[in-house]
Automatic annotation (TrEMBL):
Lineage: superkingdom: Eukaryota
GO cellular component: cytosol
PANTHER family associated with the record: AHA1, ACTIVATOR OF HEAT SHOCK PROTEIN ATPASE HOMOLOG 1, LIKE, HEAT SHOCK PROTEIN 90 HSP90 CO-CHAPERONE AHA-1
Taxonomy of the source species: Eukaryota, Metazoa, Chordata, Craniata, Vertebrata
Gene Ontology BP, a term: protein folding
Family: Belongs to the AHA1 family.
Gene3D superfamilies: Activator of Hsp90 ATPase Aha1, N-terminal domain
Domain Activator of Hsp90 ATPase AHSA1-like N-terminal: 29-98
A Pfam family reported for this protein in Swiss-Prot or TrEMBL: Aha1_N
Origin species: Labrus bergylta
Coiled coil feature spans: none
InterPro entries registered for this protein in UniProt: Aha1, AHSA1-like_N
GO molecular function list: ATPase activator activity; protein-folding chaperone binding
UniProt protein name: Activator of Hsp90 ATPase AHSA1-like N-terminal domain-containing protein
Length: 98
């Protein structure tokens, strides 16, 4: 850690009268819950998994609870999310049919 006054000038954030967050130097946070909820539903609904033993398909997303946010610090994106999902699916067992 540099001594007081000996730091890199790029580290110094100027005091601005308009309080502008230049280059996202300070933390910014945006709620992404609605977008990610819609995206998760669209990705999972209709998802099909198949192999030699059978197949299954997600037919309904019943419960989707949680939250998501996007944070920006010094120009870097940081994602936080926590979801609890319950889905209904149907499946077929091809081994029992043989």
């Amino acid at each position: 850690m540099a001594k007081w006054g000996e730091g890199d000038p790029r580290w110094i954030v100027e005091e601005r009268a308009d309080a502008t967050n230049v280059n996202n130097w300070h933390w910014t946070e945006r709620d992404a819950t609605n977008w990610s909820s819609d995206k998760l539903k669209s990705l999972v609904l209709g998802l099909t998994v198949e192999n030699d033993e059978g197949s299954c398909e997600v037919t309904e997303v019943g419960k989707l609870e949680g939250e998501a946010s996007i944070n920006n610090r010094k120009g870097k994106l940081i994602f936080f999310y926590e979801w609890n999902m319950k889905a209904t699916w149907t499946g077929e067992d091809t081994l029992r049919q043989m």
